[in-house]
Amino acid sequence: MSDRGRVGDLEIDQDLVQQRRDWRVQRIGWAVMGLILLAACLGLFGHGPLSRATAGDGGGPLQAEYERFCRLQTATTLRLRIQPAAVRDGRARLWLDRDYLNAVSLGAVVPEPERVEVGSDRIIYEFAVDERGEGPAVVSFELEPQRPGLLRGGAGLEDGPSIPLRMWVHP
Amino acid sequence: MDAVLRGLSVYVFLLIVFRISGKRSLGQVTNFDFVLLLIIAETTQQALLGDDFSITNSFILIVTLMLVDIALSLLKQRLPRLDRLLEGTPLVVVEDGRPIQAYLRRARIDEEDILTAARGTQGLERMEQIKYAVLERNGDITIIPR
Fold first, then answer.
1. Distance from CA of B82 to the nearest CA of A (A)
2. Cβ distance A131 to A90 under 8 Å?
3. For the whole model, what pTM was predicted?
4. What ipTM goes with this model?
5. Same domain for B78 and B96?
6. Is position A89 within any domain?
């Protein structure tokens, strides 16, 4: 190129306008990296206070605790609390959305259910519950989301209302 | 498809992060910078491969990365503006033996870095023997003696 710039005797492509813009963008970039780090510490990418989510009203028979933000193919736990009022004949019957279960790979269920029933749009898990206890019975599902993006689902007691689960899966 | 997307996103992400961290970061690679690079490579590897350790997956990834690199170099050749945007521009930091402090500060180098380059590449002893020092696009400091 013949229109190459010069600085003194140097034939050089120095461009101070672009250089200053570069520096500015770099400074902004550093700030953005700092914000990403802060967001990560707060749990925007999972594992932190912002990520903790609960569903189901406190007085109701069933509550869910899960991570609002989770990551693709990384284990996360869905914890369901069954209040004593929801237990009949030492049995609690819970269901999870089939669509929801299709989008995750289900690992261990703790404790292991007594029975699993397959319905058309839901899968029902039946647990034996010791009715002598005062507090809720807690069941954990270990999940690994298999699709990035918004993951909606529902859980509930067999005849109870559906508790909405909304998770965002980071790629 | 998955592997190609992984490769592409990691490529773009690293390109942006390295561009943002500036020339200083990798121009003068210290021992520690080298270790840092190894750690970054190790961290990236997991995200790139996912849970697929097949040779096919690694082939797809390598082809993806190489092709993106080639495509980008072709684009940069066609579009000088893109080239400048991605690679930056050289900067004259010493003129006639006088360091330009404002540029040194913003480019995060100091006079000692320049003298080191002057000694190493030209065998110069003092700042006044330098006619020009240029912070090149790749982060090297080049020296033109008087």
1. 12
2. yes
3. 0.80
4. 0.82
5. no
6. yes
